[in-house]
C-alpha cells in the first residue's frame, strides 16, 4: 500500500480584526498579472482564522494553516505570530 502524505496549506497575512472571541480576520494580499495588459494587480482575501488563546492583535502578521471546519466561516487556524504589533 502506498501511503499518501498531505502537505498542510499555510499562508501569511495581516490581522485586521480581533473583535470576535477566539477568531481573527486575516487579510491576505497577492499579486497577479493581468492577462491582456500584463500589469501586476493586487488582489486580497479576508479569512477568518481560529485563535484559541486570543493572543493576536490588530496589525500583527501571522501564519495560518488550513484545518477541518471549526464553524460556518472558520476553516483556518493561527499557527504562529510572525511579527507582533507591540
From TrEMBL:
GO molecular function, one term: structural constituent of ribosome
Recorded GO CC terms: cytosolic small ribosomal subunit
SUPFAM superfamilies for the chain: Nucleic acid-binding proteins
Matches recorded under InterPro entries: NA-bd_OB-fold (IPR012340), Ribosomal_uS17 (IPR000266), Ribosomal_uS17_bact/chlr (IPR019984), Ribosomal_uS17_CS (IPR019979)
Record keyword Acetylation present: no
Pfam families: Ribosomal_S17 (PF00366)
Top-level taxon of origin: Bacteria
Coiled-coil regions, chain positions: none
A single GO BP: translation
Alphabetical UniProt keywords: Ribonucleoprotein, Ribosomal protein, RNA-binding, rRNA-binding
Biological role: One of the primary rRNA binding proteins, it binds specifically to the 5'-end of 16S ribosomal RNA.
Protein family per UniProt: Belongs to the universal ribosomal protein uS17 family.
Oligomeric form and interacting partners: Part of the 30S ribosomal subunit.
HAMAP family attached to this UniProt entry: Ribosomal_uS17_B
Name listed for the protein in its UniProt record: Small ribosomal subunit protein uS17
Encoding gene per record: rpsQ
Amino acid at each position: 500500500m502506498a501511503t499518501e502524505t498531505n502537505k498542510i496549506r499555510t499562508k501569511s497575512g495581516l490581522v485586521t480584526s480581533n473583535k470576535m472571541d477566539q477568531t481573527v480576520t486575516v487579510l491576505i494580499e497577492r499579486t497577479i498579472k493581468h492577462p491582456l495588459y500584463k500589469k501586476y494587480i493586487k488582489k486580497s482575501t479576508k479569512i477568518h482564522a481560529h485563535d484559541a488563546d486570543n493572543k493576536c492583535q490588530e496589525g500583527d502578521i501571522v501564519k495560518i494553516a488550513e484545518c477541518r471546519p471549526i464553524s460556518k466561516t472558520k476553516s483556518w487556524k493561527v499557527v504562529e505570530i510572525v511579527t507582533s504589533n507591540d
